[in-house]
Amino acid sequence: MRAKHWLIIAAGAIAFLATLALFLPASLIVSRLPPNVVVSGLSGTVWNGAAESVTFNGQQLGALQWRVHAMQLLSARVAAYGSLAGEHGQVAGEFALSSGQKVDVDALQAQWQIAMLPIKAVPRGWTGSVKVDAPLLRAEKNTLLDVRGTIDVLDIRRTEAPMGSYRVTFDDASREGDQLVGRLQDLGGPLRVTGTVRLSPGNYAIDGLVAAAPDAPREIADGLRYLGAPDAEGRRPFSVAGEY
To answer: In the chain, where are the structural domains located?
Structure first.
Protein backbone atom coordinates (compact mmCIF):
# COMPACT_ATOMS: atom_id res chain seq x y z
CA MET A 1 0.00 0.00 0.00
CA ARG A 2 1.33 3.39 -0.96
CA ALA A 3 2.38 5.91 1.67
CA LYS A 4 -0.31 8.34 0.65
CA HIS A 5 -2.92 5.67 1.33
CA TRP A 6 -1.58 5.26 4.89
CA LEU A 7 -1.80 9.02 5.32
CA ILE A 8 -5.41 9.02 4.17
CA ILE A 9 -6.27 6.15 6.53
CA ALA A 10 -4.47 7.84 9.45
CA ALA A 11 -6.19 11.15 8.78
CA GLY A 12 -9.54 9.40 8.63
CA ALA A 13 -8.86 7.58 11.91
CA ILE A 14 -7.86 10.83 13.65
CA ALA A 15 -10.96 12.57 12.34
CA PHE A 16 -13.14 9.67 13.57
CA LEU A 17 -11.56 9.73 17.05
CA ALA A 18 -11.87 13.52 17.25
CA THR A 19 -15.54 13.32 16.29
CA LEU A 20 -16.08 10.54 18.83
CA ALA A 21 -14.40 12.60 21.58
CA LEU A 22 -16.50 15.60 20.67
CA PHE A 23 -19.64 13.72 21.68
CA LEU A 24 -18.35 12.06 24.85
CA PRO A 25 -21.23 12.28 27.35
CA ALA A 26 -20.91 14.61 30.34
CA SER A 27 -21.59 11.64 32.65
CA LEU A 28 -17.96 10.54 32.13
CA ILE A 29 -16.92 13.42 34.40
CA VAL A 30 -18.55 11.83 37.45
CA SER A 31 -15.88 9.16 37.87
CA ARG A 32 -13.18 11.86 37.98
CA LEU A 33 -14.72 13.92 40.79
CA PRO A 34 -13.53 13.80 44.42
CA PRO A 35 -15.91 12.06 46.86
CA ASN A 36 -17.03 15.33 48.49
CA VAL A 37 -18.41 16.62 45.15
CA VAL A 38 -21.74 15.21 43.96
CA VAL A 39 -23.39 16.16 40.68
CA SER A 40 -26.74 15.12 39.25
CA GLY A 41 -28.87 15.82 36.21
CA LEU A 42 -25.97 15.81 33.77
CA SER A 43 -26.58 16.65 30.13
CA GLY A 44 -24.57 17.55 27.06
CA THR A 45 -20.98 16.48 26.51
CA VAL A 46 -17.64 16.64 28.28
CA TRP A 47 -16.87 19.71 26.16
CA ASN A 48 -20.16 21.56 26.44
CA GLY A 49 -22.51 20.44 29.16
CA ALA A 50 -24.55 21.15 32.25
CA ALA A 51 -25.49 19.71 35.63
CA GLU A 52 -28.80 20.46 37.31
CA SER A 53 -27.28 20.16 40.79
CA VAL A 54 -23.81 20.38 42.33
CA THR A 55 -23.19 19.59 46.01
CA PHE A 56 -19.91 20.25 47.84
CA ASN A 57 -19.33 18.82 51.33
CA GLY A 58 -23.06 18.29 51.66
CA GLN A 59 -23.92 21.89 50.70
CA GLN A 60 -26.12 22.39 47.65
CA LEU A 61 -24.47 24.99 45.39
CA GLY A 62 -26.76 25.11 42.38
CA ALA A 63 -26.79 24.40 38.65
CA LEU A 64 -23.57 24.31 36.62
CA GLN A 65 -22.84 25.00 32.97
CA TRP A 66 -19.49 24.74 31.19
CA ARG A 67 -17.86 25.07 27.80
CA VAL A 68 -14.31 23.72 27.39
CA HIS A 69 -11.82 25.52 25.14
CA ALA A 70 -10.35 22.46 23.44
CA MET A 71 -7.43 24.26 21.77
CA GLN A 72 -6.00 25.14 25.19
CA LEU A 73 -5.25 21.45 25.73
CA LEU A 74 -2.37 21.83 23.26
CA SER A 75 -0.72 24.09 25.86
CA ALA A 76 -1.18 21.54 28.65
CA ARG A 77 -3.98 23.64 30.14
CA VAL A 78 -7.58 22.76 30.88
CA ALA A 79 -9.55 25.94 30.18
CA ALA A 80 -13.28 26.51 30.17
CA TYR A 81 -16.02 29.05 30.66
CA GLY A 82 -18.13 28.06 33.65
CA SER A 83 -21.16 29.40 35.50
CA LEU A 84 -22.75 28.25 38.73
CA ALA A 85 -26.08 29.61 39.97
CA GLY A 86 -28.02 28.59 43.03
CA GLU A 87 -30.07 29.73 46.00
CA HIS A 88 -27.09 31.36 47.73
CA GLY A 89 -25.57 33.18 44.74
CA GLN A 90 -23.87 32.84 41.38
CA VAL A 91 -20.36 32.64 39.91
CA ALA A 92 -19.21 32.96 36.29
CA GLY A 93 -15.88 33.37 34.54
CA GLU A 94 -13.12 31.91 32.42
CA PHE A 95 -11.19 29.27 34.38
CA ALA A 96 -7.90 27.56 33.48
CA LEU A 97 -5.94 24.86 35.29
CA SER A 98 -2.34 24.02 34.42
CA SER A 99 0.52 21.99 35.89
CA GLY A 100 1.63 22.74 39.43
CA GLN A 101 -1.98 23.34 40.53
CA LYS A 102 -1.96 26.77 38.92
CA VAL A 103 -5.37 28.34 38.52
CA ASP A 104 -6.04 31.36 36.29
CA VAL A 105 -9.44 33.09 36.35
CA ASP A 106 -10.41 35.87 33.98
CA ALA A 107 -13.56 38.01 33.91
CA LEU A 108 -14.75 36.65 37.25
CA GLN A 109 -18.21 37.81 38.28
CA ALA A 110 -19.58 36.44 41.53
CA GLN A 111 -21.98 37.17 44.35
CA TRP A 112 -22.55 34.80 47.27
CA GLN A 113 -24.01 34.88 50.78
CA ILE A 114 -21.13 35.16 53.25
CA ALA A 115 -22.69 32.69 55.69
CA MET A 116 -22.33 30.01 53.00
CA LEU A 117 -18.68 30.68 52.17
CA PRO A 118 -16.24 27.90 53.20
CA ILE A 119 -13.63 30.28 54.65
CA LYS A 120 -12.43 30.81 58.20
CA ALA A 121 -12.60 34.61 58.01
CA VAL A 122 -16.42 34.75 58.27
CA PRO A 123 -17.60 35.23 61.88
CA ARG A 124 -20.47 33.05 63.04
CA GLY A 125 -23.84 34.77 63.07
CA TRP A 126 -22.94 37.42 60.49
CA THR A 127 -25.03 37.78 57.34
CA GLY A 128 -24.67 39.67 54.08
CA SER A 129 -23.14 38.94 50.71
CA VAL A 130 -19.82 39.26 48.95
CA LYS A 131 -19.64 40.49 45.36
CA VAL A 132 -16.52 40.03 43.23
CA ASP A 133 -15.73 41.80 39.96
CA ALA A 134 -12.21 40.63 39.08
CA PRO A 135 -10.83 40.86 35.54
CA LEU A 136 -7.85 38.79 36.70
CA LEU A 137 -7.14 36.29 39.48
CA ARG A 138 -4.15 33.96 39.81
CA ALA A 139 -3.60 31.24 42.40
CA GLU A 140 -1.28 28.28 42.95
CA LYS A 141 -1.66 25.45 45.47
CA ASN A 142 -4.49 27.28 47.29
CA THR A 143 -2.38 30.45 47.58
CA LEU A 144 -3.61 33.69 45.99
CA LEU A 145 -0.82 35.12 43.82
CA ASP A 146 -2.49 38.06 42.12
CA VAL A 147 -5.89 39.72 41.80
CA ARG A 148 -7.21 42.82 40.02
CA GLY A 149 -10.64 44.26 40.61
CA THR A 150 -13.05 44.89 43.47
CA ILE A 151 -14.47 42.83 46.30
CA ASP A 152 -17.62 44.26 47.90
CA VAL A 153 -19.01 43.04 51.20
CA LEU A 154 -22.63 44.18 51.16
CA ASP A 155 -25.36 44.72 53.74
CA ILE A 156 -23.44 43.19 56.61
CA ARG A 157 -25.46 42.44 59.72
CA ARG A 158 -24.39 41.12 63.10
CA THR A 159 -27.33 39.53 64.94
CA GLU A 160 -29.66 41.72 62.85
CA ALA A 161 -27.74 44.95 63.61
CA PRO A 162 -26.77 46.70 60.32
CA MET A 163 -23.00 47.14 59.95
CA GLY A 164 -22.84 48.68 56.46
CA SER A 165 -21.17 47.80 53.16
CA TYR A 166 -17.47 47.88 52.23
CA ARG A 167 -15.18 47.63 49.21
CA VAL A 168 -11.61 46.38 48.75
CA THR A 169 -9.88 47.42 45.52
CA PHE A 170 -6.85 45.66 44.03
CA ASP A 171 -4.96 47.17 41.09
CA ASP A 172 -1.59 47.01 39.31
CA ALA A 173 0.16 48.50 42.37
CA SER A 174 -1.27 46.00 44.87
CA ARG A 175 1.67 43.59 44.83
CA GLU A 176 4.15 44.21 47.69
CA GLY A 177 6.64 41.36 47.94
CA ASP A 178 4.69 38.19 48.82
CA GLN A 179 1.63 40.21 49.84
CA LEU A 180 -1.35 41.64 48.01
CA VAL A 181 -2.46 44.98 49.44
CA GLY A 182 -5.93 46.31 48.69
CA ARG A 183 -7.54 49.65 49.53
CA LEU A 184 -10.46 49.44 51.96
CA GLN A 185 -13.36 51.92 52.06
CA ASP A 186 -16.95 51.95 53.26
CA LEU A 187 -19.88 52.12 50.84
CA GLY A 188 -22.32 53.57 53.33
CA GLY A 189 -23.82 52.49 56.62
CA PRO A 190 -23.16 53.33 60.28
CA LEU A 191 -19.34 53.34 59.99
CA ARG A 192 -16.89 55.46 58.01
CA VAL A 193 -13.87 53.30 57.22
CA THR A 194 -10.60 53.69 55.31
CA GLY A 195 -7.62 51.36 55.41
CA THR A 196 -5.81 48.46 53.79
CA VAL A 197 -6.32 44.72 53.48
CA ARG A 198 -3.12 42.66 53.29
CA LEU A 199 -3.30 39.11 51.95
CA SER A 200 -0.40 36.72 52.41
CA PRO A 201 -0.49 32.92 51.95
CA GLY A 202 -3.33 31.70 54.15
CA ASN A 203 -3.54 34.90 56.22
CA TYR A 204 -5.10 38.36 56.13
CA ALA A 205 -4.57 41.61 58.04
CA ILE A 206 -6.87 44.62 58.03
CA ASP A 207 -5.63 47.98 59.31
CA GLY A 208 -7.46 51.26 59.13
CA LEU A 209 -9.34 54.13 60.66
CA VAL A 210 -13.00 54.08 61.64
CA ALA A 211 -15.52 56.67 62.81
CA ALA A 212 -19.25 56.55 63.45
CA ALA A 213 -21.47 58.09 60.80
CA PRO A 214 -23.61 61.03 61.96
CA ASP A 215 -26.73 58.85 61.97
CA ALA A 216 -25.09 55.74 63.47
CA PRO A 217 -26.97 53.96 66.29
CA ARG A 218 -25.81 55.00 69.76
CA GLU A 219 -24.55 51.51 70.65
CA ILE A 220 -22.25 51.42 67.61
CA ALA A 221 -20.81 54.88 68.31
CA ASP A 222 -20.26 53.95 71.98
CA GLY A 223 -18.58 50.69 71.00
CA LEU A 224 -15.85 52.53 69.10
CA ARG A 225 -14.56 54.07 72.32
CA TYR A 226 -12.78 50.82 73.12
CA LEU A 227 -10.52 51.33 70.10
CA GLY A 228 -8.63 54.19 71.73
CA ALA A 229 -8.44 57.96 71.40
CA PRO A 230 -9.74 59.53 68.16
CA ASP A 231 -7.67 61.74 65.89
CA ALA A 232 -8.57 65.32 64.96
CA GLU A 233 -11.24 64.01 62.54
CA GLY A 234 -12.80 61.68 65.11
CA ARG A 235 -11.35 58.50 63.56
CA ARG A 236 -9.96 55.68 65.66
CA PRO A 237 -7.37 53.08 64.57
CA PHE A 238 -8.32 49.40 64.31
CA SER A 239 -6.55 46.21 63.30
CA VAL A 240 -7.84 42.70 62.58
CA ALA A 241 -5.87 39.63 61.50
CA GLY A 242 -6.59 35.97 60.93
CA GLU A 243 -6.65 33.05 58.49
CA TYR A 244 -8.76 32.46 55.40
So the answer is: 25-99, 100-244
